[in-house]
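Please, structure for the following, as tokens.
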Amino acid sequence: MVVLAELPRTRATLLLRLLGSGRRFREAVADLAALPRDAWEKSVAVPLLLHFGLDQQEPTTDEEDDVSAEIRAWFEEYKQQLRNEGRAEEAARAVLTALRVRGIAVPDILRKRILIEKDPELLERWHERAIVAASIEDVLPDLS
């Protein structure tokens, strides 16, 4: 038998603590939010929390208002972060596609640099340059 109220507030107990309620649950959600973006716990917990309705727009009872609002705000921020990362990845792939179509070789180090870029405006400039570029230096003059 596990008593959630007696579990220490550690990363090792996080998934169990998410089964709690009230303050324990809020603390577990805060701990989950504080983990690195690629933490395995997020890949397990977030889909389950979403599935069980924690991203719904209205709480089910008055008692849940504070907790639900806090959790929903965190989820919205997290989902927006995932959307932005997805958009950046697609924009980076568009740059690489334009370069490939133009027959421009991209060294591995520059390919990795393009793929890790998250600034949408910079990626858009690179994409525009890649469409008309004659060389990789035309696209990434500061990095080549």
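The radius of gyration is 22 Å. Helices lie at 14-17, 22-34, 40-51, 65-101, 108-116, 120-132, 136-139.
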